[in-house]
Write a structure and sequence with these properties.
The chain is of the alpha/beta class. Helix content is 38%, strand content 29%. It has a single domain (2-146), classed as Nucleotidyltransferase, domain 5. The chain contains 5 helices and 5 strands. It has a 5-stranded mixed beta sheet. Helix 1 packs parallel to helix 3 (94-108). The longest helix is centred in the first third of the chain and has 19 residues, at 45-63.
Length: 163
């Protein structure tokens, strides 16, 4: 059985504000296999965090479609989305609830994916944070907003859209 680790993160400059989501897929040895991120427009940090989780699940479905069983540990520094996903907190916000329902439905339709979502400290989520902030910085620079881009320095790896 294959085993992977995925770090997810959402970033928002303001709440709500310009936002992005990212995921970093690694094998069990810690080698980065894929980094994906996406600019989301103006939204809240919590929506960005859930969008990162949803993007990771969609990418995993695509990447593992021909496998019998795949174990994946998804790591997030958002205690809220981890506890909401795991049923420890109720998801009351209508937009977050819609995303959560889509994620759960996608996972139910793909039983070969064995997903565990866990909380990690922010410092253990550095690559996903850098990827989300890099795409956010790139978008804000294109829009001519140097004031907002100065808040974060770019970092991360290969940036493209989350499927």
């Amino acid at each position: 059985m294959a085993r992977y680790y995925v770090n997810v993160d959402g970033a928002s400059r303001g709440n709500p504000g310009p936002a992005a989501a990212a995921m970093v897929l690694q094998d069990k040895s810690g080698k980065t296999l894929l980094t994906k991120s996406k600019f989301l427009g103006v939204t809240t940090n919590n929506v960005a965090e859930w969008a990162a989780l949803e993007g990771a699940v969609k990418a995993l479905v695509f990447l593992t479609r021909n496998r019998k069983e795949t174990e994946v540990i998804i790591r997030s520094d958002s205690e809220l989305i981890v506890k909401q996903f795991n049923g420890e907190f109720k998801t009351r916000d209508p937009e977050l609830k819609r995303i959560a329902v889509r994620v759960k439905k996608t996972l139910a339709e793909n039983p070969h994916l064995k997903i565990e979502v866990i909380h990690v400290p922010r410092e253990e989520n550095r690559l996903a944070d850098e990827a989300a902030n890099k795409v956010l910085d790139q978008h804000l620079r294109r829009k001519g907003s140097p004031k907002q881009t100065a808040k974060r320095s770019p970092g991360g790896d290969d940036i493209s859209s989350i499927p």
